[in-house]
Records
---
Amino acid sequence: MIKSPRGTRDLLPPDTALWNFVEATVRDVFRAYNFHEIRTPVFESTELFARGVGEDTDIVSKEMFTWEDRGRAESDRGQSLTLRPENTAGIVRAYIEHKLWERGLNKFFSIGPMFRRERPQKGRYRQFYQIDAEVIGPAAAGSQSPARDAEILELVATLLDRVGITNWTLELNSVGCPADRAKFNEALRRALAPVVDKMCADCQRRAVTNPLRVFDCKVPADQPIIETLPTITQFLDEACRTHYDEVREILEAVHIPYIENQRLVRGLDYYTRTAFEFTHGALGAQNAILGGGRYDGLSEALGGPAAPGIGFAIGEDRLVLSLMETVSAESVMRKPDVYIAPLGAGMNREAARLARELRRHDLVVELGDESFRLKKSFEAADKIGARYILIVGGDEVAANAFALKHLVSGEQVTVPRAELAQRILQTK
Ligand code: AMP
C-alpha cells in the first residue's frame, strides 16, 4: 500500500469544514483591515530563502526541501529550487518584482502550504499550512510606525477571537536594529566563550557564526546556560526603545494583554525591533500558534528599495487543533437539507429536475437513484444526516406535489412543487 509521505497528512471531512470555517473567518477579518490576497509560487529559487531567512537559521541549514532542476533547457538546468519553508520572503520578492508600491498596495495576506523537513509530531508536520499577513511599504507611507506593529497585533487578537480561540498569550519582545544586534552578538560571544564547550554541537557552531541563534536551542541540558546569557533588551538604542514603548502603549490603549519575553528572538534572521508569538495552552509542546515581527531591512537584503515591513504567520494546523478543543468539526459541517428519493422506473429524470431547482435556492441536495427501494432510500438519507426526504414517484409527478418528510420529527406533508424550496428553507 502506498501511504502519504512522512510528515504529511490528508485533511479529510469533516475536519476540512473546520479549516474552511477558519479561512472564511480570516478572510472577513482581513477585509475589515483592508488587506488584499496575494498568491505566490510554492517553490522559489533557493537563494531567496538563503538571503531572506538566513543561512545560519535551522530552517535554511537543515530543513529545506531543495533540489536541482533537471530541465532540458540550458536556462533551467542546474537551477537550485526549494519548496517554500515560509512565505514572507516570497511575498517581499513579489513586492519588489512587481513594484507593488507604485500601485499603492501595501497590505497582503496569503494562505497556503509550507514545507520543512522537521521531525514530525503532533502539531509539527513537513507540509503544514500558514496564514500569512504582511504590511510593507516606503517609510514615507508610515510603514515604520509603531502604530503598524500595534495594529497587526490587534488584528491577530481580533482574528483569534472571531475564530473562537480564547486563552491565548501574546509574548512580546524587541530584537532591536542591526547596530544593537552587533553589540549584542559581541556580548553573547563573550558570555558564551567560557561555557560553550558544555553546550550542544549546534550551539557551538552558532556561537561562532551567529550567536543570537543560540536562543533557538531546544536541548534541555543547554537551557540553564541560556538562562544566564545577556538579553537584547539591554542593548536597544534610544530609537528602538521608544518604538517598543509606543507599541506597548497602543496595545494597552486598545486593551490587548501581553507579556514580555526578553528571550524571544524568533528563528529567522531578518527580524528587527518588534518580535512576537501567540501561544495556546491546549497545544502542549508545540504551543506557538503564530509568530511574527518587523523586518525593516528585508526588502533591501533581497535587492529591493528601502521598505520597512511587519508581518506574521499563523500555523493553521495548530489553530485548527486548538479550535478542536471547543468546537467539533461535525458541528460546522453543513449537512444535506434534503435527500431526493426517486421511486420507480423513469423517475431519475424528474428527480434530477427537482434537484436542479432546489440547488438554485442554495439548498444542499443529495440525489438518490430510482433503483432503490423506499427503505433503502430512507437508510441512505439517515446515514448522511439529511433533514428531509423528498419522495418522487409517479403519483407525485402527476399531481405536481411531493411527499416531504422531516426525518427527525417524522412529520410528513404534501407540498406543491412551487412551494418546495420555501418549505425546506423555512425550517433551516
Ligand atoms: P515560523 O515561520 O517558524 O515563525 O512559524 C510560524 C508558525 O507556523 C508557528 O507558530 C507554528 O504555528 C507554525 N509552524 C511552523 N512550523 C511548523 C510545522 N513544522 N508544522 C506545523 N506548524 C508549524
---
Amino acid sequence: MDNRIASVETLLTCPDRNYLLVKVTTEAGVVGYGDATLNGRELAVKTVLDEYTAPLLRGCDSGRIEDIWQMLFRHTYWRGGPVLQTAMAGVDMALWDLLGKRTGLPVYQLLGGKSRDRIKTYYHVHGDTSEALIARAHEAVKAGAQVLRYSFSTKNPFHPESGRSYTQPHQDIELNERFEVKGQAGGTMADTETQIARWETEPYLEELPDITAALRHAVGPHIGLIHDIHSRCTPIQAVRAAKELEPCHLLFLEDPIEPLNREALELVRAASATPLATGELFNTMDQLLPLLQRRLIDYIRLDISHFGGITPLRKAAYVAEACGVKTAFHGPGDISPLAHAAQFHLDLHVPNFGVQETLRFDPRLSEVFEWHTVTEDGYLSFEEQPGLGVAVDEAAAAAFPYRKAFIPGHRDEGGAVHDW
Ligand code: CS2
Ligand code: MG
C-alpha cells in the first residue's frame, strides 16, 4: 500500500457555527480527517494549511506522525501561537485517523490502549438568576449528570431599572422534546467584531459565593461543581474568590486569572485549597510546564485543536501524570466533533484522566458528522471504529457555507477593554 501523502485539503463548513476540517489522502486512497478550527480566525488557519502546509506534506510518509509534527513545528522557525498550532493540530489528528483506518484500529488502541472503560463528562448549566440556575442543575442531575459547570448572569447594580446584566460565556443549549435548539449557546459568536458587551468583575464577585453555596446546597455534596471565571479577575480578586468558594468544595475553579499571567497563580494557590485548572489558551508545552513543575494547578485544560493535536497533548498528559495533575481537556462547541472524538480517545487512554467537558451539540451537526456516543449516568462511551470514529459527509459540509463570525468583545462601564 502506498502510504505517501497525495493531498492535504481544507473544508470550511458552518452547520451551526464555523468548523475548519483537514482532509489528508494517501496515494492508496485512504483518507483521514482532523479539526483545525480557531474560533473567529478560521481563515487565517486555512491560509496556513492551503498555502504552506499542504505543499510541504505532499509525498511524505503518512505514518511518520511524530516526524511530521516535528517538521511542521521546527522547520517553520516561527514556533507556536494559536494559528500555526491549530493548523498543525488538524494535520496531526487527520494522520492518527488515517493510521487507524489503515490498521483497522481505533486511535486509543494505537496510543497504548484503554486505562478505563468510560469517560466522566460535564455539561454546562446556566441561569440568568440563581433560581433558574438551580432549576437547570436539577434537570441535568435528573438526566444523570454527576458533574456540572455552572454560570450565571450578574445583575447590573448601576442600572437596576434597565434589567441589564453581566453575563458569562456559557454553552448551555436547551433542546425541546423534538431535539430542536430552543436557545442558542450564550455569547460565543457575534456577527461583527465591534459587537461589545459590558462587564464589571466586582458585582459578579459579590454574587459568586452565595450563588455557589445555594447551588451546592441544592444538588448535595456528591455532584462535582466546576466554575469558569474566564480570566476576568485580577490576581487578588481571584484569591478572594478561591477563598470564599472553599466551603463549596468545587471540583475546580477554571482560569481564575488571565492564563498567560502564570506567576500570579502562585498567589491564588498559596491562599486556598480550591482546586485550580487552566490551559485552554495554551499552544505549547513551555506555557504549561512551569505550572506543572510548581504544582500550581490540579487539572490541565488544554485544547487539542489549539495545542497542536494528539501528539503533543499526549505528551502533556504524561508530564502532568508525573506531577500528580489530572486532565480536563477543553471541549467547547467551537471545536468540531472530530476534535472532541480525538480527546475522547486520549481520555480513555491516559492514566491521569480527570473529567471531560462536553456539550449538547446542535442537531444540525449530525448532517455533516456521523458519530455514535452514549452518555449514561454522566459517563460517555462511543462506538468502536477504526481511527477517530467520526464520518464526514463532504457534500453536506459544502451545503453549509462559511459565515464570518467573531468572539464578542467586552468593555467595562468606563469603556476600557476587558477580558472576555
Ligand atoms: C470556555 C470556552 O469551555 C470553556 O471553558 O472557556 O467556551 C471558550 O469561551 C470558548 O472556547 C471560546 O471560543
Ligand atoms: Mg474555559
